[in-house]
Amino acid sequence: MKSHLKHKEKGTASSPRVVLITGASRGLGRAMALRFSRGGCIIAVNYFQSKDAALETVRSIMEAGGEADSFYGDVRLSQDVTSMIKLVYERWDSIDVLINNAAITRDHVLPKIKIGDWEETIATNLTGAFNTIRAVTKFMAKKGGGHIVNISSWSGVKGKSGQASYAASKAGLIGLTKSAALELGRFHIKVNAILPGFMKTDMSGSLPEFLQDETIFSNILGSAQDPDEVAEFVYNLSWMDHISGQVFNLDSRVV
User: Fold this and answer.
1) Which whole-number Å values give the CA distances from 91 to 11, 18, 36, 85, 180, in the listed order?
2) What radius of gyration, in Å, describes the C-alpha atoms of the chain?
3) 220 found inside a domain
4) Candidates 47, 89, 166, 235; catalytic one
């Protein structure tokens, strides 16, 4: 059963916010989709290869009384992104929040990174965010504002052995965040970045167990990050009206 809920935690709104989350079929993306839905938002679930998982995210939202739909799109391709965002806007006449969460990792020591893996990582993690920001800007500006949250990484700040392509893409995403915030502020479009802690998701699950343990051990609190906690932070940040161009570290490793 679909419903247009109003936000009750931070005041009422004339209509529910529309939130587009890339890579929202699983992991942190799904956690954010569910959290925003509980806050009364309409969720546009983007996916590329994980159609069944994306549909499961949509089903979970709708069974809880929310409203959502899935939208195919390869964020690496500007034409895919333009088409997807147009469909979302035509469906709900608004895009209030964009969360750039889609990401991949192709870990290897630098001399052995294949050119194709480097290009695919940069294209997905960095160019994908560039494509979505560029495409969504006119719709947010037309409405009078919006909020863009880019999911970066600790690796983009400190680097990590064996993650040259991933770290480079996430560092680039921080630079993109700061530049976009400067350019889009006049339209009252906020742009911020998040550095989640290490989370045990499908993507991190491909790492050897000893590397996962090593990452958790380097954490001051000695524990992995909870995707629901990150989702809660992003949800609350999206309501902040006077914060832009910032990078929020949600890890407990010291920068």
Assistant:
1) 25, 10, 18, 10, 26
2) 17
3) yes
4) 166
Whole domain around residue 69: which residue ranges?
18-247
Say how far apart CA 132 and CA 136 lie, in whole Å: 6
Structure tokens at 107: 């870990």
The enclosing domain of 171 has a CATH number of: 3.40.50.720
Q: Degrees (nearest 5) of the Cα angle 214, 218, 220? A: 145
CA 39, 44, 46: angle at the middle one, nearest 5?
Answer: 130
- From first to last of its 255 residues, the chain has per-residue pLDDT tens of 333 333 444 434 469 999 999 999 999 999 999 999 999 999 999 999 999 999 999 999 999 999 999 999 999 999 999 999 999 999 999 999 999 999 998 878 878 889 999 999 999 999 999 999 999 999 999 999 999 999 999 886 876 767 789 999 999 999 999 999 999 999 999 999 999 987 665 554 455 554 545 555 567 666 667 899 999 999 999 999 999 999 999 987 665
- Residue 111 in any domain: the answer is yes
Q: Is residue 54 part of a domain?
A: yes
For 34, how many CA atoms within 13 A lie in the half-sphere containing its CB? 20
| DSSP character at residue 176 | H
How many independent structural domains does the chain possess?
1
pTM: 0.87
Cβ–Cβ < 8 Å for 200, 253: no
72 is catalytic: no
Query: Is 84 part of a structural domain of the chain?
Result: yes
